[in-house]
UniProtKB/TrEMBL annotation:
Pfam annotation, one family: Aldedh
Name of this protein: Dehydrogenase
Domain Aldehyde dehydrogenase, residue spans: 47-489
Record's keyword annotation contains Oxidoreductase: yes
Organism lineage string: Bacteria, Bacillati, Actinomycetota, Actinomycetes, Kitasatosporales
Length: 514
């Protein structure tokens, strides 16, 4: 039987979302573009670049890119805001942040819809991104006074440079906690997506008197101001290792406080394991948002003698993945579709992944599974150039980026090992990671091997995540530089402690675990 013809869910078109933005925050949106926010004013400056939605290739609002001269003025204005804000009593800061959270809650549906169009998140995950930001900051509002404990704000504003994949639960969450701790905050919009969502969130915060600066521009052009400027009190970065290394060098040279979360190849080891039913159940969850998350698990390291049992558990699960247009339904008033993921961030990334897969196979990797467009949910005739269907490869060659780097897309690789030493070497292939998991039946084996895995969080047969509220987060090796975060550590990273304080983290001259 032919699959049903799908249509766009009623009221969810990009034009609908844009009109709602114009009505919700007319100060921040103008005609077909967003504005920059600096010096407490929304400004029609910067060159607006064209942008398209990864969902179907249609035009959406692009970032209005500033040059370094304007960025310099914005940073200086943020310092003035910082000096005023740090004198505001914590009770007043709590009230203003709480009011911002109430406003975000009122607009949570629109914020989530913007995330669907701008970065391709399925509806359920987009809503979760918004809700995690709101709920997480509410916890800090209740806990902030004990966390501060006579810790004053920094000497200058916190500069935030973050990737596009979690605009709310990572970037907006961090900004509001930084402001709650007494700092003005600066954020650069990610180049690849999320500008409208961030603009709306910042507009709601600015209305409540939160000292927010939101600017767009090339990282290379603005880094001198957003990283090296003497006014900056701390740099918070989330992104790839190449860019992160340049930021790490700059902050180390300047002695600035910093939080640099970078990518790593998070691995899942299988050794003397028999609970295959649990593994089958978790596999689809590991593909949430097409593995475009810092805590995704793109690599399985499997004991060779268990490979047949592993495949029997893995393949049926990966074949259940649901991919497609996040807003495509059979009838306009149907609920949002239940999908594991939609597109990757853009067509260029899709081509890069497709080329890497083809090259790896050409050099000897064995394809074990390839999803099909025939099984996906698309609108008739829609642009699908940003979609990558799930792929699983056995033994990617050492020459392939898929062997040693995080693909940031729905691609799993499997490496077979025969000894515990090989297992550990394969699980530590990227010189440090954020998370890892080891599935083994024997608790003593886990207790012996887990400390040798170079990841900040390690699960015993269960996945680990970034965490919320008082759960700590960081990375080992090249996956992290600077202070660890989560709970009171996030507040301590953006405040001044006693003389000689050594914060937990990875620093040029020491590493200290919490």
């Amino acid at each position: 039987m032919a699959p049903p013809t799908l249509t766009l869910k009623s009221g969810t078109a990009w034009t609908d979302a844009w009109q709602r933005c114009l009505a919700a925050a007319p100060e921040a949106f103008r005609d077909d573009r967003v504005l920059n926010l600096w010096g407490s004013s929304w400004r029609l400056d910067g060159r607006a670049l064209p942008a398209t939605s990864p969902v179907d290739g249609r035009p959406v609002a692009g970032p209005p890119r500033l040059g370094p001269d304007t960025a310099r003025r914005a940073v200086h204005a943020a310092l003035d805001q910082h000096r005023a804000w740090r004198e505001v009593p914590v009770t007043e800061r709590r009230a203003r942040v709480s009011a911002t959270l109430d406003a975000l809650t009122d607009h949570r549906e629109l914020l989530a819809l913007l995330l669907v169009w701008e970065i391709g998140k399925p509806w359920k995950l987009a809503r979760a991104d918004v809700d995690r930001a709101i709920d997480g900051v509410r916890w800090y509002v209740e806990e902030i006074e004990r966390m501060l404990d006579n810790r004053p704000p920094l000497d200058g504003p916190v500069s935030n440079i973050a990737s596009w994949n979690y605009p709310m639960s990572v970037l907006v969450h961090a900004m509001l906690v930084q402001a709650l701790a007494g700092n003005a905050v600066i954020a650069k919009t990610p180049t690849d997506g999320g500008v409208a969502c961030l603009t709306l969130a910042c507009a709601l915060a600015a209305r409540e008197g939160i000292p927010v600066t939101l600017v767009s521009g090339s990282g290379g052009e603005l880094s001198e101001e957003l990283v090296r400027a003497p006014e900056i009190g701390c740099v918070s970065f989330v992104g790839g290792r190449d860019t992160g290394a340049a930021v790490a060098t700059a902050v180390a040279d300047l002695g600035k406080p910093h939080i640099l979360e970078q990518e790593g190849l998070n691995t899942w080891g299988i050794w003397n394991h028999s609970d295959w039913e649990s593994l089958t159940a978790v596999i689809p969850k590991l593909f949430d948002y097409g593995k475009q998350r810092c805590t995704a698990y793109p690599r399985f390291v499997v004991q060779r003698s268990l490979f047949d049992a592993f495949l029997a558990a893995y393949l049926p699960a990966v074949r259940t993945l649901r991919v497609g247009h996040p807003l495509a339904v059979e009838h306009g008033d149907d609920p949002y579709p239940e999908l594991d993921f939609g597109p990757v961030i853009n067509a260029a990334k899709a081509k890069e992944l497709t080329d890497q897969i083809a090259e790896a196979i050409d050099r000897g990797a064995v394809p074990l599974h390839r999803g099909s467009a025939a099984d996906a949910r698309f609108l008739p005739g829609q642009d699908t150039s940003a979609y990558v269907h799930p792929v699983t490869l056995l033994n990617p060659p050492p020459s392939s980026p898929l062997h040693h780097s995080e693909p940031f897309g729905p691609v799993d690789t499997i490496v077979l090992v025969d000894t515990e030493a090989e297992l550990l070497a394969a699980m530590n292939a990227s010189n440090g990671a954020l998370v890892a998991t080891l599935s083994t039946d024997d608790q003593a084996t886990y207790d012996r091997l887990a400390p040798q895995i170079r990841a900040f969080k390690i699960g015993h047969g269960t996945p680990r995540s970034r965490g919320d509220r008082d759960e700590l987060f960081g990375g080992f090796g090249a996956s992290w530089r600077g202070a660890f975060v989560g709970g009171e550590l996030l507040v301590h990273a953006v405040t001044r402690g006693p003389a000689g304080e050594r914060l937990p983290g990875n620093f040029p001259d020491y590493q200290l675990m919490p």
